[in-house]
Design brief:
Keywords: Cell membrane, Membrane, Transmembrane, Transmembrane helix. This protein has a three-stranded antiparallel beta sheet with strand order 1-3-2, with helices on one face. It has helices at 2-17, 38-50, 76-95; strands at 27-32, 54-59, 65-70. Helix 2 packs across helix 3 (76-95). The longest helix is centred in the last third of the chain and has 20 residues, at 76-95. The protein is an alpha+beta fold. It starts with a helix and ends with a helix. It has one domain: Alpha-Beta Plaits. It is 51% helix and 19% strand.
Length: 96
């Protein structure tokens, strides 16, 4: 997570200081979730909120879909896959 946060910090600084170099628009991304444990979801929420440039916007009532906002989204599917493989899968090993 430290590496991801550092890279995101750099990207947000670039996004703010060099608006002409913005490569992709901000977007909301739907991410299907397999993780259902409330504690695991709370940790995922903290990870997302601590990563600069991303924000946890909403979770569906049945906890099956996360709505994530990101400052720059090149490929929504790629971002969803990253969150699932990098964070959700590890949290599922811990909490489920």
């Amino acid at each position: 997570m430290v590496c991801d946060t550092s890279v995101s910090n750099f990207n947000v600084v670039r996004f703010l200081l060099l608006p002409r170099m913005r490569k992709h628009p901000a977007a909301f991304v739907h991410i299907p979730l397999e993780l259902r444990d409330p504690n695991g979801l709370a940790v995922l929420a903290m990870i997302v909120c601590l990563t600069p440039g991303t924000s946890w916007a909403e979770i569906s009532r049945d906890r099956s879909m996360l709505l994530l906002h990101a400052l720059e989204v090149e490929d929504a599917r790629k971002l969803a896959d990253f969150v699932k493989s990098r964070y959700e899968s590890l949290l599922m090993e811990i909490f489920e």
